[in-house]
Design brief:
The chain is of the alpha+beta class. The protein has one domain: Cyclic phosphodiesterase (Cyclic Phosphodiesterase, Chain: A). It has 8 helices and 11 strands. It has helices spanning 27-36, 56-62, 64-69, 87-100, 127-139, 149-156, 162-171, 192-212; strands at 15-20, 38-39, 44-45, 73-79, 104-105, 109-114, 117-122, 184-185, 216-217, 219-225, 233-239. The strands form 4 sheets. It has a 4-stranded antiparallel β-sheet. It has a 3-stranded antiparallel β-sheet with strand order 6-7-8. A hairpin with a 4-residue loop joins strand 2 (38-39) and strand 3 (44-45). The termini are far apart. Mean pLDDT is 93; it is low at 1-9.
């Protein structure tokens, strides 16, 4: 193949991601899956809630990008498997890693602006949380194929400093290790007024869930994308501590 030939989209390999998502059917899962309008485990649509100040059609559009991935917090960003590695090997390694890690209470979550989108974030990133995320980044990295030129260009589009470039070159993603920020995306990148409306619409329910169901990062979740442009599907959960 010459350097200017394009690989057909249907020949691209599947991609995998290691996310944290609340247990299916749990209060936080019900909140996140219904807010985005998708059950990521069944790859099925869900009715979205009435959001004060946001028209239903506008809400559908505002949540299109995160709906593609499902309600989650990224622990290892999407990647293809390197040559010689297969899905059973990835599952074995994920199970082994999960057995070695302890659950991490996330404390109180808040709806806030991150970059240009709305997200749920813990008030603090504890040493235990940062260590868990670092383990997901480093312990599985030998299974990852190098990112494509298109992936690298997309990551660089927002602008990276020297450390961001270093992390991107080493791990295929610039927001890892000391730059990791656990978050659950709630909206597309949008104008500040739209992002603010999303935050206002969810903050009451977020405060209620903080009181009645404090969230614990208690599992690693494997998400799979069969082909480009298809949504990510939650295919397996690996409880922490075995």
């Amino acid at each position: 193949m010459t350097s200017n030939e394009v690989v057909p989209a249907d020949s691209a390999p599947p991609r995998y991601a290691v996310y944290f998502a609340p247990a299916v059917g749990s209060p936080w899962w019900e909140f996140g899956a219904r807010w985005l309008g998708r059950d990521e485990a069944r790859d099925a649509p869900l009715p979205q809630p009435a959001a004060e100040g946001i028209d239903p059609g506008v809400l559908r559009e505002l949540t299109a990008a995160p709906r593609h991935y499902g309600f989650h917090a990224t622990l290892k960003a999407p990647f293809a498997l390197r040559a010689g590695c297969d899905l059973p090997a990835l599952r074995r390694r994920l199970a082994e890693l999960a057995r070695r890690l302890a659950p991490v209470p996330l404390g109180e979550l808040q709806a806030t602006t991150l970059a240009r989108f709305a997200a749920l974030r813990p008030l603090a990133s504890t040493p235990a949380l940062l260590a868990l995320a670092a383990a997901c980044t480093t312990d599985l990295d030998d299974l990852r194929a190098p990112p494509s030129a298109a992936d690298l260009a997309r990551r660089r589009a927002a602008g990276l400093d020297a450390r961001g470039e270093e992390l991107l070159a080493r791990y295929g993603y610039p927001y890892v290790l000391e730059r990791f920020r656990l978050h659950f995306t709630l909206s597309n990148a949008a104008d500040p007024a739209s992002v603010t409306r999303v935050i206002w619409a969810v903050e009451g329910e977020v405060q209620r869930l903080n009181r009645v169901a404090p969230l614990v990062l208690d599992r690693l979740c494997l998400f799979e994308q069969a082909a480009p442009e298809t949504p990510f599907v939650r295919s397996a959960d690996f409880p922490l501590g075995g």
